[in-house]
Amino acid sequence: MRLLDGVPVSGVARDHDALVVHTAAGSVRADTVLDARGPRCPEHVGPGRVLLHQRFVGQWISTDRPVFDPTTVTLMDFTAQDTPGRVHFVYVLPVSPTEALVESTLFTPDAADPLDHRAVVAAYVGRRWGLRSDAWHVLEEEHGCIPMTDAPPVDLAGGADRRWHPTGADRAATVVGTTRPSSGYGFARSNRHSVEVARHLEDGTPVPAFRDRARTRFLDAVFLRVLRDRPEEAAEAFRRLVALPGPLVVRFMGERSTLADDLRIVLALQKAPFLAALVRTVADAVKRVRRAGRRRP
Q: What is the pLDDT of residue 182?
């Protein structure tokens, strides 16, 4: 077995009964290729679907003096949200008194949103901890875009995105859809699906696509409509969610929640915006069914 870690891949091609993965460190032959990068943020989704772009820039920073509490994580600080039509927050993950990940996250319907996340992080560090620009520095940076949509993952992994269809590589499998559409959270889902992937690779059987529970898909669709149509309600919705008992929230985020758990969460959220989103979600679903019926011969 040959292990290449962190090496850019330029393409995948078929060679008789095998697949050849071309990398900057040379080529590797394989029977199966799993692409776990996740779908790119699309520009459009189908009628009646919701699409938000979760854009983020996170910086691991080091400070000249101790300012962080390693026992406390800031999940969502909405004090940076100052523009209508978008959901914007900062979270902080300290690992020592002088080192932390500070990340600016934006939910926006605009694929080309111009928010300067690095300037947001710099302003936040200065405002919250009173640090001058010369009192801290960036160690590493992560950035990206996660599609937040109720469109099926298969709809995001095709079309004009040619990386999902490498030339001749029809045996290449994809591992997509493990980030939860309503939040971008994917740790628990990815861990569970990784166990399934490993089992099928060991057995030599096809790797199945990740599947949500129908109830989860419906709840996410409703929540996405609130985030899109009433972004000013987002901070209060998340506050009410995390104010619930910790084990309940963990079960919900990890999709281990029972029907009673889900009902408790629904009842804790704001009634008017979520009822409106519920009605719109059902109406959009009915329209999709009717359109599908008209297309059938």
A: 85
Token pair 């099926």 is at which residue? 152
Render 53-71 in DSSP notation, one character per residue.
EEEEEEEEEEESS----TT
pLDDT tens string 79-128: 877 777 889 999 999 999 999 999 999 999 988 888 999 999 999 999 99
β-pair type (26-30, 87-96): unpaired
Interacting residues of 110 by C-beta distance below 8 A, sequence separation 6+: 53, 86
For residue 160, the model assigns a pLDDT of: 43
Distances from the Cα of 33 to the Cα of 37, 100, 238, angstroms: 12, 35, 38
3-state helix, strand, coil in the chain (%, to 5): 40, 25, 35
Q: How many whole angstroms separate alpha carbon 57 and alpha carbon 116?
A: 9
Q: What is the CA radius of gyration of the chain?
A: 21
Cα–Cα distances in Å, from 102 out to 35, 210, 264? 28, 30, 32
- Chain centre distance of CA 205: 28
- pTM for this model (two decimals): 0.83
Q: Which two structure tokens, joined as six digits, stand for 20?
A: 């050849």
CB-side neighbour CA atoms (13 Å) of 119: 3
Max Cα-Cα span within the chain: 70
Between CA 242 and CA 249, with CA 252 as vertex, the angle to 5 degrees is: 25
CA 161, distance to chain mean position in Å, is 19
